[in-house]
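TA notes, week 10

Several of you asked for a full example with nothing omitted. So below is the full record: structure tokens for the whole chain, then the designed sequence directly under it. When grading your own attempts, check the secondary structure regions first.
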């Protein structure tokens, strides 16, 4: 990515460093995070980079001299956060940091500004700084580009200030930026994924205790592959619907007499809800929490160091034509991935029918993927637009891609975008 070159173009000096924060895909557990439940996301190779430097002094926005980003009238003497983005080529946004409050910054700049605000609210110093942003994550694709923007800025600002902040605290601060400064009532999954994932693993996050565990996740070793499908659809009703789902879940928990739906572990208990809508919402959340733990158990069964499990995993890794070619059919890793695929498809049906957050392009992509040999597929993220995650035998990947492309073409929909999804590392300094 080219954040450093953008920095040089806009600010006329060298950045002090470049920080990268990844987007995420979620293997299992959707709309469970704000119900205190479990999620199992993994970080993507794609993300947001921030090249940043401390501003030269009060009132100066450039790292060395007055440039296109220099402080405007009225800001002299105060700390400024000066922001530019390769995806917004015509704007340089100057955010006065002194007295910064929610509501003062809107649009994309609200995310980095919100992070500066939340860091200060948590007691960390924030210097005046110049930040150049670049991203290879499609916006609006449900891959957490907002959290990646927050987390890249957050690593940059804390490093510039010389602060050592734990990853757990960084998650809390970035989430606060999104909830209270930007004003979006999201859960804690996206920032956790961007800041705490490890390459080759999915992140099991208990959203009640905020404990995390790294779960080995290497579909390639079993001859399987993940495919991310950006359906390029974004539906107008998305905004209010997310908040409405949250409120419905809270109401369901209240009527069931529990602090949150996480406390319900027996699916039959949701039948106590008279209201059919609340019953469906709760059924999804309770079932998805269980599915997360089932997927974790399946993945851990592959990582079992016992000789028998080791031999099964090694065998499938070395023979793509064996269990690898038919995840649903044979022993070991193939079986586990076949089962994970089945759980993915089950989760999609639950999100579509019970939680009612799917959208036509996602349903069609899932059906086409399954018909072309995928082990499973589901919509990911908040819903009403965004991406689908499919799990398929590597040998079927081209067929799955072709089937989805044809299904979209038949309906005269914008062609989908396919992205690779290899579990990658969390946010870090890259230059
Ligand atoms: C969005 C939110 C997350 C989570 C998902 C649904 O991505 O940012 O906190 O609620 O939707 O699982």
């Amino acid at each position: 990515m080219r954040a450093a070159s953008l920095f040089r173009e806009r600010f006329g000096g060298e950045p002090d460093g470049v920080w990268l924060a990844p987007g995420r895909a979620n293997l299992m557990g959707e709309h469970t995070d704000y119900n205190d439940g479990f999620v199992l996301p993994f970080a993507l190779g794609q993300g947001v980079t921030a090249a940043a430097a401390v501003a030269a002094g009060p009132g100066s926005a450039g790292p060395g001299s007055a440039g296109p980003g220099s402080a405007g009238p009225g800001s002299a003497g105060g700390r400024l956060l000066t922001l530019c983005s390769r995806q917004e080529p015509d704007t340089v946004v100057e955010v006065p940091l002194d007295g910064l409050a929610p509501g003062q910054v809107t649009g994309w700049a609200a995310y980095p500004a919100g992070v500066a605000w939340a860091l200060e609210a948590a007691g960390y110093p924030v210097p005046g700084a110049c930040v150049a942003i670049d991203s290879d994550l499609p916006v609006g694709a449900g891959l957490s580009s907002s959290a990646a923007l927050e987390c890249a800025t957050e690593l940059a600002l804390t490093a510039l200030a010389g602060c050592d902040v734990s990853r757990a605290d960084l998650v809390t601060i970035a989430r606060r930026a999104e909830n209270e400064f930007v004003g979006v009532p999201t859960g804690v999954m996206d920032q956790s994924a961007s800041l705490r994932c490890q390459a080759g693993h999915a992140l099991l996050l208990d959203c009640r205790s905020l404990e995390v565990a790294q779960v080995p996740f290497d579909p390639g070793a079993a001859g399987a592959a993940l495919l991310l499908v950006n359906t390029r659809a974004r539906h107008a009703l998305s905004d209010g619907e997310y908040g409405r789902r949250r409120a419905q879940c809270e109401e369901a928990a209240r009527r069931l007499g529990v602090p949150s739906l996480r406390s319900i572990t027996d699916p039959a208990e949701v039948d106590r809800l008279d209201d059919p809508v609340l019953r469906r919402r709760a059924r999804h959340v309770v079932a998805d929490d269980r599915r997360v733990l089932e997927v974790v158990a399946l993945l851990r069964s592959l990582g079992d160091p016992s000789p028998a499990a080791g031999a099964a995993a090694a065998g499938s890794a070395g023979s793509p034509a064996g269990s690898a070619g038919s995840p649903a059919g044979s022993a070991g890793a193939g079986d586990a991935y076949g089962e994970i695929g089945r759980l993915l498809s089950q989760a999609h049906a639950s999100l579509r029918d019970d939680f009612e957050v799917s959208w036509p392009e996602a349903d069609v992509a899932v059906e086409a993927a399954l018909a072309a040999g995928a082990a499973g597929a589901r919509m990911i993220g908040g819903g009403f637009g965004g991406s689908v995650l499919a799990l398929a035998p590597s040998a079927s990947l081209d067929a799955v891609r072709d089937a989805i492309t044809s299904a979209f073409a038949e309906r005269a929909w914008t062609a989908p975008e396919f992205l690779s999804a290899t579990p990658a590392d969390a946010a870090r300094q890259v230059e």
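The radius of gyration is 22 Å. Use that as a sanity check on your answer.
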